[in-house]
Amino acid sequence: MTVAENLFENLRLELRRGCLALAVLAQLRQEHYGYTLRKALADRGLAIDESTLYPLLRRLETQGLLVSEWREEEKRNKRFYRLSRDGEQMLSQLLQEWTELNESIGTILENSKTL
Amino acid sequence: MELLDRYLQAVKKHLPNKRQDDIIAELRANLEAQLEDKEAELGRGLNHQEAEEWLKSLGHPMLMAAKYQPMQYLIGPGIFPIYWYVLRLVLLWGSVMYALVSAVIVPLTTHDATRIVGAVFAWPGVLLTMATWVTLIFVVVELVARNNPGKIPQFDGITKDWQPSTLPPLEKEQAPGTKARSYVAAVAEVVFGFLALAWLLLIPKHPFLLMGPGIAVVNALPYQLAPVWTEFYWCILALCIIQLGWQCISLVTDNWRGPRVAYNIVTKVLGLIPLGLLLTTPDHLLFVLKNPGADMERYGKTLFSINEGTHWGLTVVGVIVVLQLIWDVVQAVLAARRRDWKPLNQSPVK
Predict the structure, then answer these.
(1) Taking burial as the number of CB atoms within 10 A of a residue's CB, which of A66, B115, B180, B338 is the most buried?
(2) How far apart are the CA of B253 and the nearest CA of chain A, in angstroms?
(3) How many domains does one find in chain B?
(4) What distance in Å separates the CA atoms of residue B336 and residue B38, rounded to the nearest whole number?
(5) Into how many domains does chain A fold?
């Protein structure tokens, strides 16, 4: 990997890091267990590694933004996650932030085009 | 699948005891569901190579387990800038103290030249010990702060209450063509100054330190240094102490930045004293015979040539030093004039 590629990879990961939590919270307005959540996100164009997603779910649960329960499905015990009440509030705040950020970036890009 | 079981077992070993069963059960459920999908897609079970590739894509068990751990660090980002600042201070001042103590104690307690070499070689070990202690203290502070949030007072200067007016004043503007000195360079100068002083103090007892193996040749010669060299030695020692004192005071009073015009001029003027001492020796007698009665006839002429040659060599050195001194004084006067003129040329700040 060249220095430029390495730099891009670092910046890309940095950019994605915050977005992943937002995407997971948004997706968990509907109940999922780890694997189906990963599939659902991938189907919508956001592929996440197992080693990133599963620990992230744990972290968000520890922070009180998700609730989980073990339940049997298809003869197998699975841990299902969904958004908690605090998670809903946090999600709406984050979405607000996201929207503003997105608009700002859009404006900056528009302005730079006209220069 | 045996390979999956082995993978999960390896992950489990790197997870905290309390949560490992729960995490592994969940990870197993997710990975088995993924495996079922893969097998359904293929219409058969994964062969060994495919299973290996799949598990490899999940990442090394240790890395997978590490992602479940909270972010781990010995010294967090909140304390790290202070740690780094303190560490640098301790290492710099520790080095100064070590050099000071070594320069004073070693020559007083022993005449063994190897002790001074030992003191120099022990320096990295002393630095390492100091760094270890500072790091350990900050690790403890970090641990206490992390386990007692809000109870540990914030360090003054990096809290939200800091005042811009408490920032240090602007550094003095450098004269054109001169270079600002770094703090490290200023401290290193003091450290090496003390080492040089220790070296100077050891020379009378151990001329080997000055001449090296050449001392054997010098001892075999029929000539020796004239008594004027003893006075010369004490002058050099005094000059070294004055320079060192000046450097220490500059460091302590925070005047180590920038060019040292006065320091350079004063040390050059004082440096002329020992040189003048040698140049004004009656009959240019810088070297004498060990046994004048026996050797005068044989070595007298050579001795005369050596003394005259050395005298002229020292005269050339003296002329160079005086010219340098004149140059420095002229530069200092010109720089002072430029400073006096500058406010008139500058436009007012809007």
Answers:
(1) A66
(2) 44
(3) 3
(4) 82
(5) 1
